[in-house]
Structure to design on (1645 residues):
């Protein structure tokens, strides 16, 4: 239903005619003249063009093709026009002169680089056969050709593969081009338009596929960590196939997650993490980006913020990650590639457990079984002088199950179930339970094509056996892409991507007892895992148990007695979850070149998937209702369709000025429907279906929305050194009222290449560009936000239905959000481009956010949905890259460093709203407050009493620090980092490539729930000092005033206490903690990745079927140079990828340290 | 291009208008069930020593926590009642179609406000939002004194609007099935309760209110009890809140308090086996016996606890999923009204002092007859020991009345906590843990931490009026008994 009127009024013919008269000119001079007349950019290697010598040309009103043909006539050069860029390349010999070889023809020759340095070790293969050779130390080679051979293929790591057709000659001189140089200046920008990087007035960061897959990350998003300035990656601590969060230039949004939009080959990808984990449990089923096969990625462009992404409107305000997948190569024969990767992973950081004291209290056992079979308390037993042995008690609390007991010295005791054991340290609890993660990725691709049609097919299988036993992930992706030149003017590009993913037994996260990491942190340090591995109650256990109530044979055997306790062995064996996701991403693009300067592109894309989840817990599961187990099934169908039409043109205004204009329209449609059912209490065991349950309840959700848009953008260029880009877009969104559903947002940017403008041609300063941009991006929020509604209770009460009014007050007049962003920057290349700097300053502000502003409950509502507030992100990004060493023998050292500092400020919230709660957990609230950065951590537990100088007051009677009577709210710090950065180095020598990436984050705090458990239960080393008395709490002696308050005396405390008593003041119970003691500095410097690649010398493959072979070793998340957290990884502690987990760690599963090996083969 | 946008953006799973009965049912059920669930039992229920609480419930050990959930739940009830007033029945205030229904909603609302202010003290009332389109995000806290004056007037107005021929909520009204006469008696009983609440702080207002109430019909028997039915063979949410605690709660928090079990045991109360279960160890030893656990135990005391030596709630009644006749969830019973009447009689407010004993005995009989006890024949020994108030001072009589009320209020944590604070009976010995109260039983609930964060100025003004700040140890306005 979209109507788009396109009106272009240009005198096209005149604009494209070229008149030139030049004598003895270099090609560069000719190109420059053409550029001035037409606005086309030229891309070429200086060496190649210089070598071509001088030309004479004299044309009048000629077309571009004619002029180029004249210029390049007789030279081994060819050209290609892509959008408004002309690429000049050395051409392969003309096809008609191919003369298939006669049997046993010997061909000799020499391979060099572009500077005529000989290249040893180049693989020379005969196309279509297993014959081959390898070049010698001086680059020379000799090869016996099989009958009918038509072409040779030269390949060498780091160089572009070259195919040389046989023309009957028996000697060959072949020059290979370094692959990193070719086309490195063209980047993919919004709407997939390829642009010369120097013409851009905003920041686009590019990553090549190879850079992403050095150390195999199952989720591509993780591979971006540390690589690009201003891009912060946080991964959920969630087992195989979990989600990852990318935030570019700071959080923009109070609600939601500030994540960028992912666009794959022009089609937006649905990246929702459907029903993520929360602070109190849940499972991470993975996000959209985790479904993409990293091996299919050709490159990634990161459009940082609205300046680069304004054309994406709605979802571009957090930036865009543009992913371009691989295609077949025109004019290449059949290529088959196979790669295989195997890696293993283990915990990088685990809690710092103590292995000295066992289960008990006050340095002793709690109970005693006398020879009469009765259980007494330890005190009674001592008083009565009973014979027998110490007995452990089960319990839910610190009194029974903590590790404040006796020193472990092999004493004999009876555990809480009646097993007679020796009290010995159990240091390996994590190792005993968890597995080594094993990940196996296999990928095969076939590509090929002619000038008219090319294709690429790939299949990839990823199989992970998780760290948590029985957790598995299996993903198959199929990808078929084909591009065809149907007529000389009509091109087709089609892609279909099918992903089938199956996850099994993904772990429960955060503060939930079936989180397998949950009980380990409090588990008594003397309790052997072998006892827990026996995970059901036996009749004998029941008879001899102590401290439980209501247990029976066959029930899940837990060591604590909470209503929500789990035995991790039961969890992995007797509970099950499984999810199947079938996803199809399809794209069809047709483009038609009306003339060389006017092109129409129509594109349709779809991303749809069905996510089917099932979970059951068998009868006997302790935390299920009435211990009778339960089951849940849910099916979600998600579909997003996008259609767009884009008209692009390149016009020449006069000899100095060029103008490109694009006009387009698009239609987006989103749909999500969830249906499901939960059944509680199985009737018959081992039958895992909903109708085998006593009671059940439904799940249902439906969301639909549409957006129509029209947009225009343009590029203006002046003499190839000054560029101005502009865009404007109007959206109509179904989620807003008819009065407010249309909104407009423009952008403008400019870049000035000073080195060209001032005609500076210096080796010291090779390139200097200044850039500036201003942009706006709008967003219209989720559907169904306009009306207040009643919802019905799922269950009636005795047949009587019940309803209640929404706790959110809607605003029918909601408007769109608007982000305004300004950025300035400079790019410099020096010393013949061996050293480069890039600097950016930006300021982005998001206003009129659609927010559910929290209200005090006494208003009768919980939230008011309004357009409110302003959040500002201001920051700098700096990166430097260079080649410190480049030796004649081929040794190259390249190095880059990036730095980003984002200053976030909540400028205002809604009228009369003092704070916005982002998340909260026991003892802490994370909020946004005007005048402060996003993510203020506020204590919500107890606080120390301090004197005026901030020194802790110590109770002289007990020697223990004094704390407030009630919970107090006071600011503890901020979750946001001061700065982030990355340091990347690579060393290349012959076939070897060694790389290393250091990932840095400095500043920001994390509140740890694990620390709380560890301190309550005395399980970590921190609790060791002063166990047998002699613990001195730092602080000064307090004195009670007449009114009952305390003041300091200036006397330092000298009274020592028992460590248990001290830590019990710090953390007595999960609801009763001194909040500030759980804070951790989240700074880290991590050795993120080291990889070593080796490309096999061609002589080893000479004459073989395999053309190229490479092998690589890598390690990921290897170690920390700096880490300040207590027992967990600061960058992987979140339980979900939303704001609600910001600044919070909650019994996270450890992050994996992986070691892998990979093999690449090309046939 | 955008013509289907409106259809697209209509919420598919909810409605924009609803019958008032569905809201009334929701409020009645949620309000009633909240008073006896695990959350309330381990806090207020443990403070008044019905339940033992334990280490995992720090509040039961007097360690101070904001009472966020109770605060939120009450204002959610009030939100739905406000919707009845401002949307469902708006414009029908003087018409038969809406008049009595609105009056009933107002009576229910008054009872919810009273419970809220009794727990916290000053709370925002007059400045809360008037409707969903007129929201006040910063309501000031009204003093409890002003609140009580307002609530009494609210009941009077509502009673005047009740009309037997008006449209009724019918079955949506769990309490009285739309019986207007019963609503009138219930409202008047609420008024009696309000009057006596103010006995020690505003004697004149208290007397006036009590005398007015005593002159009008009050609940006349167990058939008049305000209660919400429960169901055992349905969803857990339909089960009695104490049974829900058994089904979904913690096995460590099922124990009864020593004071409660000991009182029942000492008095040979026939309700004991229907309230408490015999201890596991006593059953093993072949001599079933009842024993409650100490409350607010110190760490050292907790170490001496062997759980099998203590009684949980009775597995034959409250903890019985298959009980043939599910126990109703009581809101206000005739027995309580009898005890209030006895107290009024002691004061000579609307009844003679000599009537106190009759009212007191009626109260015990009504309490015994309630399901799950269903005791219609009270053991003579019990009658001999408990039924007489003769020869006792007014204060001693009050103690006996309040002790019986304490028993009938088992499972009614808020009201039990409030009545204990008001009269000081029964005399309870605090547990040994010092907590945040220096070892005294808390006197109020601490305000919601979200309120403190989001309505800071008004919160601070209200806290200023508390003698000991926003703490367990501050007393609400009516808590003035010398």
């Amino acid at each position: 239903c979209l109507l788009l009127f396109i009106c272009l009024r240009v005198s096209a013919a005149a604009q494209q005619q070229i008149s030139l008269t030049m004598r003895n000119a270099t090609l560069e001079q000719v190109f420059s003249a053409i550029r001035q007349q037409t606005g086309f950019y030229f891309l070429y290697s200086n060496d190649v063009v210089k070598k071509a010598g001088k030309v004479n040309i004299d044309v009048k009103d000629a077309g571009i093709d004619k002029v180029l043909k004249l210029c390049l006539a007789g030279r081994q050069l060819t050209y290609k026009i892509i959008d408004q860029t002309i690429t000049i390349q050395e051409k392969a010999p003309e096809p008609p002169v191919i003369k298939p070889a006669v049997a046993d023809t010997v061909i000799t020759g020499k391979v060099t680089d572009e500077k005529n340095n000989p290249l040893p070790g180049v693989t020379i293969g005969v196309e279509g056969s297993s014959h081959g050779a390898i070049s010698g130390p001086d680059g020379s080679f000799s090869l016996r050709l099989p009958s009918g051979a038509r072409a040779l293929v030269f390949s060498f790591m780091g160089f572009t593969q070259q195919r040389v057709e046989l023309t009957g000659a028996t000697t060959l001189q072949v020059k290979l081009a370094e692959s990193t140089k070719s086309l490195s200046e063209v980047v993919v920008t919004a709407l997939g338009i390829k642009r010369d990087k120097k013409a851009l007035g905003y920041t686009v960061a590019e990553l090549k596929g190879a850079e992403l897959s050095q150390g195999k990350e199952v989720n591509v998003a993780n591979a971006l960590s540390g690589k690009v300035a201003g891009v912060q990656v946080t991964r959920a601590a969630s087992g195989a196939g979990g989600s990852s969060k990318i935030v570019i230039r700071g959080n923009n949004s109070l609600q939601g997650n500030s994540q960028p939009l992912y666009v794959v080959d022009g089609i937006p990808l649905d990246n929702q993490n459907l029903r993520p984990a929360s602070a109190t449990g849940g499972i991470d089923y993975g996000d959209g980006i985790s479904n993409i096969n990293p091996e299919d990625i050709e490159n990634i462009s990161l459009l940082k913020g609205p300046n680069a992404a304004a054309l994406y409107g709605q979802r571009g305000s957090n930036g865009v990650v543009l992913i371009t997948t691989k295609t077949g190569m025109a004019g290449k024969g059949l290529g088959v590639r196979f790669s295989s990767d195997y890696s293993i992973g283990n915990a990088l950081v685990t809690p710092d457990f103590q292995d000295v004291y066992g289960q008990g209290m006050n340095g002793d056992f709690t109970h005693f079984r006398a020879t009469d079979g009765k259980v007494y308390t330890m005190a009674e037993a001592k008083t009565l002088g009973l014979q027998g042995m110490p007995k452990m008690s089960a319990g839910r609390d610190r009194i029974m199950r903590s590790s404040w007991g006796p020193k472990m010295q092999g004493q004999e005791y009876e555990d809480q179930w009646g097993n007679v054991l020796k009290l010995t340290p159990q240091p390996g609890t994590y190792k005993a339970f968890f597995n080594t993660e094993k990940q196996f990725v296999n990928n095969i691709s076939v590509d090929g094509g002619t000038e008219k049609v090319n294709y690429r097919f790939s299949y990839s299988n990823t199989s992970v056996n998780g760290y948590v036993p029985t957790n598995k992930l299996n993903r198959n992706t199929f990808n078929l892409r084909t591009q065809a030149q149907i007529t000389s003017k009509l091109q087709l590009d089609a892609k279909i991507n099918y992903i089938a993913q199956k996850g099994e037994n993904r772990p429960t996260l955060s503060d939930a007892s079936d989180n397998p990491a949950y009980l380990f942190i409090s588990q008594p340090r003397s309790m052997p895992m072998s006892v827990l591995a026996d995970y059901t109650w036996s009749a004998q256990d029941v008879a001899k148990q102590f401290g439980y109530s209501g247990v029976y044979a066959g029930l899940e055997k837990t060591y604590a007695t909470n209503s929500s306790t789990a035995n991790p062995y039961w969890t992995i064996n007797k509970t099950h979850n499984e999810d199947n996701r079938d996803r199809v991403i399809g794209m069809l693009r047709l483009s038609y070149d009306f003339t060389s300067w006017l092109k129409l592109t129509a594109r349709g894309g779809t991303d749809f998937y069905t996510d089917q989840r099932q979970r059951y817990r068998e009868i006997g599961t302790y935390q299920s209702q009435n211990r009778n187990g339960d089951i849940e099934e849910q099916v979600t169908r998600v579909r997003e369709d996008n259609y767009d039409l884009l008209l692009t043109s390149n016009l020449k205004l006069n000899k100095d000025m060029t103008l490109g204009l694009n006009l387009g329209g698009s239609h987006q449609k989103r749909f999500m429907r969830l249906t499901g059912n939960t059944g509680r209490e199985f009737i018959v065991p081992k039958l895992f279906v909903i109708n085998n349950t006593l009671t059940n309840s439904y799940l249902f959700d439906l969301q639909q929305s549409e957006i129509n848009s029209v947009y225009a953008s343009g590029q203006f260029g002046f003499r190839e050194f000054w560029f101005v880009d502009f865009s404007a877009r109007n959206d109509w969104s179904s989620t807003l009222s008819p009065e407010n559903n249309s909104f407009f947002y423009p952008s403008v940017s400019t870049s000035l290449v000073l080195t060209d403008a001032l005609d500076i041609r210096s080796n010291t300063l090779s390139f200097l560009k200044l850039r500036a941009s201003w942009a706006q991006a709008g967003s219209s929020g989720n559907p169904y936000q306009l009306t207040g509604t009643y919802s019905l209770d799922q269950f009636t009460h005795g047949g009587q239905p019940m309803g209640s009014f929404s706790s959110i007050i809607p605003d029918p007049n909601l408007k769109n959000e608007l982000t305004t962003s300004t950025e300035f920057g400079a790019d410099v290349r020096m010393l013949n481009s061996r050293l480069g700097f890039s600097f950016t300053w930006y300021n982005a502000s998001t206003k009129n956010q659609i927010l559910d502003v929290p209200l005090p409950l006494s208003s009768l509502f919980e939230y008011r949905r309004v357009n409110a507030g302003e959040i500002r992100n201001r920051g700098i990004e700096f990166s430097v890259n260079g080649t410190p060493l480049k030796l004649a023998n081929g040794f190259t050292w390249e190095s880059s460093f990036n730095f980003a500092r984002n200053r976030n400020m909540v400028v205002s919230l809604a009228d009369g709203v003092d704070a916005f709660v982002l998340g909260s957990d026991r003892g802490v609230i994370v909020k946004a407050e005007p005048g402060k950065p996003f993510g203020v951590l506020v204590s919500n537990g107890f606080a120390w009493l301090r004197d005026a100088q901030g020194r802790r007051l110590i109770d002289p009677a007990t020697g223990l620090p004094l704390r407030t009577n009630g919970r107090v709210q006071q600011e503890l710090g901020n979750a946001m980092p001061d700065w982030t950065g990355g340091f990347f180095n690579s060393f290349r020598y012959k076939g070897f490539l060694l790389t290393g990436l250091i990932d840095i984050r400095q500043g920001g705090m994390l509140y740890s729930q694990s620390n709380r458990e560890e301190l309550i239960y005395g399980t970590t080393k921190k609790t060791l000092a002063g166990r047998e008395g002699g613990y001195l709490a730092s602080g000064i002696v307090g004195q009670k005033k007449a009114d009952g308050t305390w003041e300091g005396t200036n006397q330092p405390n000298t009274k020592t206490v028992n460590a248990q008593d001290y830590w019990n003041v710090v953390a007595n119970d999960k609801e009763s903690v001194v909040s500030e003691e759980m804070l951790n500095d989240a700074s880290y410097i991590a050795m993120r990745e080291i990889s070593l690649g080796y490309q096999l010398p061609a002589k080893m493959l000479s004459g073989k079927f395999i053309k190229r072979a490479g092998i690589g070793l890598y390690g990921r998340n290897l170690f920390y140079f700096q880490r300040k957290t207590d027992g967990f990884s600061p960058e992987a502690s979140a339980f979900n990828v939303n704001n609600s987990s910001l600044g919070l760690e909650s019994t996270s599963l450890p992050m994996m340290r992986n070691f892998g090996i990979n093999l690449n083969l090309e046939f | 291009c955008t013509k289907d946008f409106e259809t697209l953006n209509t919420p598919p799973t909810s409605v924009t208008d609803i019958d008032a009965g569905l809201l009334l049912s929701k409020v009645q059920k949620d309000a009633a069930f909240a008073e006896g669930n695990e959350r309330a039992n381990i806090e207020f229920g443990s403070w008044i020593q019905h339940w033992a609480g334990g280490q995992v419930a720090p509040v039961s050990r007097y360690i101070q926590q904001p009472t966020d959930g109770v605060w939120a739940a009450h204002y959610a009830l009030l939100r739905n009642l406000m919707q009845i007033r401002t949307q469902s029945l708006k414009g029908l205030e003087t018409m038969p179609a809406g008049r009595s229904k609105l009056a009933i909603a107002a009576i229910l609302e008054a009872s919810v406000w009273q419970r809220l202010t009794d727990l916290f003290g000053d709370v925002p009332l007059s400045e809360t939002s008037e409707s969903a389109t007129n929201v006040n995000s910063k309501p000031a806290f009204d003093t409890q004194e002003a609140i009580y004056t307002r609530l009494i007037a609210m009941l009077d107005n509502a009673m005047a609007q009740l009309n037997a021929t008006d449209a009724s909520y019918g079955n949506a009204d769990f309490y009285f099935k739309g019986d207007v006469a019963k609503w009138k008696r219930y409202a008047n009983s609420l008024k009696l309760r309000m009057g006596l609440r103010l006995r020690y702080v505003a004697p004149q207002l208290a007397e006036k209110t009590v005398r007015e109430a005593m002159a009008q019909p009050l609940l006349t028997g167990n058939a008049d009890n305000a209660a919400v039915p429960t169901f055992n063979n349905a969803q857990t949410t339909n089960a009695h809140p104490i049974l829900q605690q058994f089904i979904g709660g913690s096995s460590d928090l099922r124990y009864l308090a020593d004071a409660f079990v000991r009182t029942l045991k000492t008095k040979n109360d026939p309700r004991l086996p229907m309230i408490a279960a015999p201890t596991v160890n006593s059953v093993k030893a072949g001599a079933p016996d009842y024993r409650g656990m100490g409350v607010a135990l110190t760490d050292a005391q907790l170490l001496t606890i062997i759980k099998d030596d203590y009684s949980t709630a009775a597995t034959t009644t409250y903890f019985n999923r298959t009980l043939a006749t599910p126990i109703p969830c009581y809101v206000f019973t005739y027995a309580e009204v009898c005890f209030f009447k006895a107290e009024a009689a002691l004061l000579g407010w609307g009844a003679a002092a000599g009537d106190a004993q009759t009212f007191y005995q009626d109260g015990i009989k009504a309490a015994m007859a309630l399901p799950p006890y269903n005791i219609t024949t009270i053991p003579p020994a019990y009658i001999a020991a408990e039924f007489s108030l003769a020869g006792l001072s007014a204060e001693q009589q009050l103690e006996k009345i309040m002790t019986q009320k304490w028993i009938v209020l088992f499972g009614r944590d808020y009201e039990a906590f409030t009545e204990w604070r008001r009269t000081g009976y029964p005399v309870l010995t605090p547990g040994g843990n010092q907590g945040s109260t220096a070892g005294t039983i808390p006197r109020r609930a601490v305000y919601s931490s979200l309120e403190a964060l989001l309505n800071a100025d008004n919160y601070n003004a209200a806290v200023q009026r508390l003698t000991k700040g926003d703490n367990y140890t501050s007393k609400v306005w009516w808590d003035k008994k010398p």
Notes: Chain A has 16 helices and 65 strands. Residues 120 and 136 of chain A are 5 Å apart (CA to CA).
